[in-house]
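A student in our group prepared the protein record below, which I am reviewing. This is what I was given:
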Amino acid sequence: MHPPGKPPADFPGTQTQKTMLDEEDIKTRLLGLEPGEFHFPALYGEGWNRLYIGDKVKIGREFLNAVRKGKFPEVEDTGRKKGGGRVYLKRG
């Protein structure tokens, strides 16, 4: 039994938010990416199309936030969208 007014620990939304973005994997993939503009799905790889749309949105948002926080210093958010997705720039 849980305390009144407090949801049980397994209640949706009460768990600690886990990240879906594997930053180490992304860093490795960035090493093989030529400098220039790119969309995140191209960097993510072929598994992108097997993800549920909600997972794509979440992972894409996590990547954008990581870029903005400087976790991938060679990548910048151009602030543009093209071809259905955000455009990033890898500096060389």
Summary: The chain is about 35% helix and 20% strand. Residues 23-90 form one domain. The radius of gyration is 17 Å. The CA atoms of residues 65 and 71 lie 9 Å apart.
